[in-house]
Design goal:
Elements (H helix, E strand, L loop, with lengths): L2 E6 L3 E7 L6 E8 L6 E6 L4 E6 L5 H12 L15 E6 L10 E2 L2 H9 L8 H14 L5 E5 L9 H4 L5 H7 L8 H15 L5 E6 L5 E6 L2 E5 L21 H9 L4 H10 L2 H5 L7 H9 L3 H25 L4 E5 H6 L1 H8 L21 E2 L8 E4 L4 H13 L1
Parallel strand pairs: 1-6, 6-8, 9-12, 12-14
Antiparallel strand pairs: 1-2, 2-3, 3-4, 4-5, 7-8, 9-10, 10-11, 13-14
Helix pairs in contact: 1-3, 6-14, 10-11, 11-13
Length: 396
């Protein structure tokens, strides 16, 4: 079976064509600068192929056409006909409280996704563009929506409700939803397989340019650090993380900013980028700057590690203990120094890192010491595989 996985952004579109059972990737790539001039980067691992093409992409429809053309290219492609693609799985960021799982896309599903645009204004419109483009070009191919928020729908009200007047929850659905759910779900399933049991108390740290933590018990999410939007929780590459709401009022009032301008500052100019004085949102750059004595870069690293550590402690308390601590995503999988900084001081929870084992990047391995009461893992995430497997199941 061949599943095409689509992750559409406002001006970009990532894709993978893969086997949902084996996880083999036949081809993957990126369309970027959609609406500007257009560029396609395509890779076919089995053929050792990498192609970069400048292709006009006024809309997502042209991007999807370019993807299908390169997939069927006689030299660089991996299929001879679009009919070989059994189904398309779409990453959709916000499903609100309507979706506790993935769904076959029909008009009712699309209407529900559109209804969530006020909750996910930065992502859902782009996700819809990708879906609509595929429907237009591949009308007979089953399409499936896989929601970032769905995995977190097992949270109890005490975790997802905000302490605001009830009417805003009842009328507008303002609550904690959480994101990176497909990644957290993959890790939960993988931990069960690796540890050989389900009744585990797990804290998963999905750390990258966007970061979130999840408290997991028996494979289900009990709490997560992101909220109504992906803005809150720990500081991220450019996102502020948790902040006193009065900060918004202060900036708006004292710097004559609109609420939209303030939100742009908190989403795109804050996080470790803001703390480092604008040096970078990339943790590799921050580590290099700190090594050269840049105090702001060091502060950015210290602050990030400190906030992640606080969430781990809080979630261990919420779970009533901790069996497994997992690091995943870009920084989690590759940040040797950051993992060490986060684990230092967690000995009281039973976390004991093996410094030598920790010297790895992108591999799946236990990095805790033999006598650590908590098993610490590095597990590369695979959101695309989760999307492909959901899509294959529903497309049947």
């Amino acid at each position: 079976m061949k599943i095409l996985v689509i992750n559409a952004g406002s001006s970009s579109l990532k894709y993978q064509l893969m086997d949902p059972q084996s996880g083999d990737v036949f081809a993957k790539g990126l369309c970027e600068r959609i609406g500007i001039d257009g560029r396609l980067t395509h890779k076919a691992p089995a053929k050792d192929v990498k192609v970069v093409r400048e292709i006009p992409m006024p809309t997502h429809a042209e991007a999807i056409t370019a993807v299908l053309d390169i997939l069927m290219d006689p030299v660089n492609g991996v299929v001879s006909s679009v009919d070989e693609i059994d189904a398309v799985g779409h990453r959709v960021v916000h499903g609100g409280s309507k979706f506790a799982g993935s769904c076959l896309i029909d008009e009712a599903c699309l209407e529900a996704v559109r209804a969530c645009i006020p909750l996910g204004p930065l992502h859902n419109p782009a996700n819809l563009l990708g879906i609509e483009a595929c429907q237009k070009i591949m009308p007979k191919t089953p399409q499936v929506a896989v929601f970032d928020t769905a995995y977190h729908m097992t949270m109890p009200p005490k975790a997802y409700r905000y302490a605001i007047p009830d009417e805003y929850y009842e009328n507008d659905g303002l609550r904690r939803y959480g994101f990176h759910g497909t990644s957290h779900r993959y890790i939960a399933k993988r931990v069960e397989a690796l540890m050989g049991r389900k009744d585990l108390k797990v804290v998963n740290c999905h750390l990258g340019n966007g970061s979130s933590l999840a408290a997991i018990y028996n494979g289900e999410c009990q709490d997560t650090s992101m909220g109504l939007s992906p803005l809150c929780g720990v500081p991220m590459g450019t996102r502020v993380g948790d902040v006193d709401a009065t900060v918004l009022q202060f900036i708006a009032k004292n710097y004559n900013k609109s609420i939209d301008e303030v939100m742009t500052i908190l989403n795109k100019k804050s996080g470790v980028l803001g703390l480092s004085g604008g040096v970078s949102s990339d943790f590799r750059d921050l580590e290099a700057g700190a090594a050269e004595g840049n105090e702001k870069c060091q502060l950015a690293l210290d602050k990030f590690a400190y906030e992640v550590k606080k969430f781990i402690g809080a979630y261990a308390a919420a779970l009533g203990g901790l069996d497994v601590l997992v690091f995943t995503a870009g920084v989690g999988e590759n940040g040797v120094l950051m993992r060490q900084m986060i684990c230092e001081g967690l000995e009281f929870l039973g976390v004991k890192l093996d410094v030598e084992k920790n010297k790895l990047r992108g591999d799946e391995r236990i990095i805790s010491a033999a006598d650590s009461k908590v098993t610490v893992w590095v597990i590369p995430t695979n959101e695309e595989l989760m999307i492909a497997q959901d899509t294959a199941e529903l497309a049947k």
